[in-house]
What does this fold into?
Amino acid sequence: MGSKKTIVDVESVSHELIRSLTRPFKPDSEFAGKYHHMRFQWWTYDIWSSGFQASMMTYLEYVDRDELYEFVSQFIRRMCDKERPKGDAIRDLLAAAFGTQDQFEIKEE
It folds into this structure.
């Protein structure tokens, strides 16, 4: 992970959203444990809400820009997943990257 702050403008985001559709799919295992240290409790949100998206981006604010775009592209690919029930692909990616509620409860005991 990089230490430089990610600064994103609207044009850049739009370009990356389009580009994300051409990035190859990466399995959840490539993100396993990557952001556990951030302690983002994603399961407390409705993953389809703007509040969730804003909160997730706040946690990812200091992630290297290329890494951020890679993660967001995988997130978008899972939003479009027609093979799995709505949201399951996203929840699996988030669980791999940020951890699960069970993992948090174990650490806090």
Q: What stands out?
A: Residues 65-79 form the longest helix (15 residues). The mean pLDDT is 84. Residues 42 and 94 are 7 Å apart (CA to CA). The helical segments are 10-20, 50-59, 65-79, 88-98, 101-108.
